[in-house]
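Sequence design from tokenized structure. All designs in this work follow the same two-part layout: the structure record, then the generated sequence. An example of the structure record is given first.
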């Protein structure tokens, strides 16, 4: 699967393009801005873009009105097709948000039910009780997503609903040549629908990538076999910032050992989970870390641990954003991309990840672990990479059996000699490549 050795870049288009928060039906061509950033994304080392919702919605994109029309606040279908051509011409694959669990109250089929009640041919597209009423005084009760009644839950066990959604995916591939889907709240989706979606997409386009949003629980429920190719690794997202804030690298390393270690009981060996330091739903990395010097270390672990790394737009130069200030703080419009020392370091990590077989496909083994330092190994039959992290403000000398006398640091190109122990400078990350 192409995604297994890719680096993703996430954009939330409505915020990124400066669209109004409410959809008043006023058209404006804004989505071309994504294409304008293609050179920056390519320079950063990302070769896939995951776009949060782009289709017509009531407000934030996850309350869909029409699955077959680009949101008028962003532009037209033709505008977006041009963006996809630009991204593809830069060697960047396109993954869209598939919001299939629920729709907005402005969704055309739900509006038909509001008007015709029992006489609507779409009443079975939703979970409706005509003996009750809604908070909006619709004259009937319906199920909303996790109590959010602006998000009307779809009945995915209705074949007509599944047919409509799958046909929409087919049109997205035909119109925009997309390469995959990120499934919103995949943990809520009907499992039979997921299996049918996987079978449909397998026949639609070679290596069409399906990754699900999952928060907690056993990821084996949703990934593998007839299900999804990947899912979001929220366990290690939490471990990344928490381990650094508490000066306790045991937390993230033990999570990685639990997920990918050498033991027989390891949960996700061989899986390529989508890994991230932040996204459109959580406080940005630069705001959640207590020590700014830990920011490059967080990305150093992200790009070296098993999985598919994903960078959220703006975070590559350390943009702040606190969830307590609302979604708008997490989904801003930047005038232009910035390039800083952090961006340089992330670009080096992205290049090292994509070009290293061991970092993309290798197993995971801990070699050194203290509260503030770790050295771990990623290895395939042909290559080993040793990853060293020092989260302390003092140098640290790590003693371990490297299995080789010298290695090249993939981030700096410098030769490293393992004789006499390996000195790790304060707040440092190294990726030592050892051939065997």
């Amino acid at each position: 699967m192409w995604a297994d050795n890719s680096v993703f870049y996430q954009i939330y288009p409505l915020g990124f393009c400066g669209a109004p928060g409410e959809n008043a039906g006023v058209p404006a061509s804004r989505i071309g801005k994504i294409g304008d950033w293609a050179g920056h994304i390519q320079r950063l080392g990302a070769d896939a873009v995951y776009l949060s919702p782009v289709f017509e919605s009531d407000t934030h994109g996850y309350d869909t009105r029409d699955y077959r029309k680009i949101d008028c606040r962003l532009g037209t279908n033709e505008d977006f097709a041009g963006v996809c051509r630009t991204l593809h011409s830069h060697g960047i694959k396109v993954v869209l948000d598939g919001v299939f669990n629920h729709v907005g109250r402005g969704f055309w089929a739900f509006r038909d039910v509001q008007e015709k009640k029992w006489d609507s041919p779409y009443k079975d597209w939703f979970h409706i009780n005509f003996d009750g009423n809604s908070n909006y005084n619709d004259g009937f009760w319906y199920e909303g997503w996790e109590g959010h009644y602006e998000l009307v839950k779809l009945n995915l066990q209705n074949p007509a609903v599944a047919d409509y959604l799958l046909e929409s995916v087919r049109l997205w591939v035909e119109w925009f040549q997309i390469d995959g889907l990120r499934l919103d709240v995949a943990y809520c989706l009907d499992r039979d629908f997921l299996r049918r979606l996987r079978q449909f997409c397998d026949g639609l386009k070679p290596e069409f990538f399906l990754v699900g949003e999952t928060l907690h629980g056993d990821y084996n429920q949703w990934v593998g076999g007839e299900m999804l190719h990947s899912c979001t690794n929220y366990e290690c997202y939490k471990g990344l910032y928490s381990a650094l804030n508490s000066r306790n690298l045991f937390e993230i390393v033990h999570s990685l050992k639990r997920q990918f270690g050498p033991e027989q009981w390891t949960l996700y060996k061989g899986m390529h989970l989508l890994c991230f330091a932040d996204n459109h739903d959580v406080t940005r990395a630069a705001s959640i870390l207590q020590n700014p010097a830990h920011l490059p270390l967080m990305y150093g672990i992200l790009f070296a641990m098993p999985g598919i790394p994903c960078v959220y737009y703006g975070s590559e130069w350390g943009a702040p954003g606190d969830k307590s200030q609302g979604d708008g703080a997490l989904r801003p419009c930047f005038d232009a991309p910035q390039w800083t020392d952090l961006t340089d370091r992330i670009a080096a990590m992205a290049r090292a990840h994509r070009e290293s077989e061991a970092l993309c496909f290798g197993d995971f083994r801990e070699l050194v672990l203290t509260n503030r330092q770790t050295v771990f190994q990623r290895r395939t039959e042909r290559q080993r990479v040793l990853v060293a992290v020092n989260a302390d403000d003092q140098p640290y000398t790590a003693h371990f059996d490297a299995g080789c006398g010298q290695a090249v640091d993939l981030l700096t190109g410098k030769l490293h000699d393992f004789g006499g122990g390996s000195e790790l400078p304060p707040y440092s990350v190294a990726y030592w490549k050892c051939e065997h």
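The chain has a mean pLDDT of 96. We note this feature because it recurs in several other targets discussed in the main text.
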